[in-house]
Every structure is written in structure tokens, then in C-alpha cells.
Design a protein that fits this description.
Length: about 250
């Protein structure tokens, strides 16, 4: 398969390594200094473009890739909710393909399934409060993380007493804390921590007077995300439309 990379930071380089190990070819690499290459023949020859950049440019990157006739796998967070309707319209009405996920880790996909199942159980036990904490590296620009939002949506869909999530406290890289709003009874609070080079930790806690139940996913490095993104690209090459991890892994 011919792959174009959009974004060539630590994640882009890890994706490149894994893609080559799986026998794929990198035909184009677009980063901040050569965005004009979206119009190049090399980029247009790609079967799929894998996009990991920043919230401010991710939407435009996906649009440019679609305009070039290239299918897109995007793992950038902090932009999709705002532009989902437009992306879905292009996929449904123009035959474009976008595989978007807040997290491509296969472990996180399993964790998400456990999260939804646990939430269904806890729907019947309103003596437990629930909250979430996510920790990421200091370079991450959005908070809470896209993965945390997806996990929160899984809880809200299964616990009747929770209607929406809110941003809680943000612990900044210098250790200072930006206080969030105190949650109402129908709100799920997500606290965020930005520390060192942490790839990603997500913890969901149910607390009662009697005990505490916590489930945690702790990523050791970026390789799990990168492998999932390449597997998603392999899937997107053979499928079309608006795609996500639920299409790739159905449990």
C-alpha cells in the first residue's frame, strides 16, 4: 500500500517505521514547511494519507487530502466535533473517505468496551459518583483529550444520571492548576494533567462511601497508537465513507 504522512513529528516517525515494517511504501511526507505538496503527484498517488498534526490545522489537512482524491486516516483531536457534519457530508455525498478516531490503540479499544460495560452496570447503583482523569505529555494542545471525551460519551450513553461532561481541573506543565467548574449532579468531570512525555493515561473512578472502583489504561509508548493507525489505513484502503474504530473492531 502507498501511504502519505501528514505530520512528521514523533508520531509520524513512529508510523513510518511500523508502516515500512508491514511492507508498505511511504510516497509523500507533508509537514509544516512543504504544505504545497498536497498538490504533488507523489501525494496524489497515495492510497491513504495518515494525518497526525495539531487541532488548528487538522481540518484543513483532511480537506486538502480529500480534494486530492486521497483517503484519510486522522488521529488529530480537538477539531473533529466542530467539523464532523462537514466531514460526514463529504463522505456521504462526494464519495470521500475519512477514518477518524480519538485513539487508535487496540488496548484503548478494549478499554473503551470495558468502560461502556461497567457504565451499564453502574447505572443501577446511584450511590457511586463517577469522574475521570487523563494525563498526557506537555506538548498536547487540547484538554481534555479526545480519548477522554470519547470515554465520557460512552459513560453518558449508559448512565442515566449523567447528561454531559465538563472540563475539570487542568494541571499545567509547571505544576500550576487551572481550576475548572464544580460538576453538577448530572455532569461528568474530566480532570487533565500535562506532565513530562507521558504518552497517555486515562482513569475512570467510581466512588462511594463503602469503596472505590477504578479502571485505567496506561500507554507505555506511542507504538500502540501508530500500529492501530496503520491497521486503520489498511482497512480504509478497502472501504469507503465515514469510518471509525467501531468498524475496525466491533465488540
Amino acid at each position: 500500500m502507498k501511504i502519505a504522512l501528514i505530520g512528521y513529528g514523533k508520531m509520524g516517525k513512529t508510523i513510518e517505521k511500523i508502516a515500512l515494517e508491514r511492507g508498505h511504501e511511504i510516497v509523500s511526507i507533508i509537514d509544516i514547511d512543504n504544505r504545497e505538496d498536497f498538490g504533488s503527484e507523489a501525494f496524489k498517488s497515495a492510497d491513504v494519507a495518515i494525518e497526525f498534526t495539531a487541532p488548528a490545522v487538522a481540518f484543513d489537512n483532511c480537506m486538502k487530502a480529500m480534494d486530492a482524491g486521497v483517503k484519510v486516516v486522522s488521529g488529530s483531536t480537538g477539531w473533529f466535533q466542530q467539523h464532523e457534519a462537514e466531514m460526514r457530508s463529504r463522505c456521504e455525498n462526494e464519495g470521500k473517505t475519512l477514518f477518524w478516531s480519538s485513539n487508535f490503540s487496540l488496548g484503548v479499544a478494549i478499554f473503551s468496551a470495558v468502560n461502556r460495560y461497567l457504565a451499564k452496570i453502574m447505572n443501577g447503583f446511584d450511590n457511586y459518583s463517577v469522574q475521570m482523569e487523563e494525563t498526557h505529555h506537555i506538548h498536547k494542545l487540547d484538554a481534555p483529550s479526545g480519548t477522554a471525551i470519547t470515554l465520557a460519551e460512552g459513560i453518558i450513553a449508559n448512565i442515566d444520571r449523567k447528561e454531559r461532561w465538563i472540563m475539570g481541573d487542568l494541571t499545567n506543565p509547571d505544576g500550576s492548576v487551572t481550576k475548572g467548574n464544580a460538576p453538577q449532579a448530572n455532569e461528568l468531570k474530566i480532570d487533565a494533567i500535562r506532565r513530562d512525555e507521558v504518552p497517555g493515561i486515562h482513569s475512570i473512578t467510581y466512588n462511594s462511601e463503602a469503596d472505590t472502583i477504578t479502571i485505567t489504561h496506561d500507554a507505555h509508548n506511542r507504538s500502540g497508537f501508530a500500529l492501530g493507525a496503520v491497521i486503520a489505513a489498511e482497512y480504509a484502503k478497502e472501504h469507503s465513507g465515514m469510518l471509525g474504530m467501531k468498524d475496525l473492531i466491533n465488540f
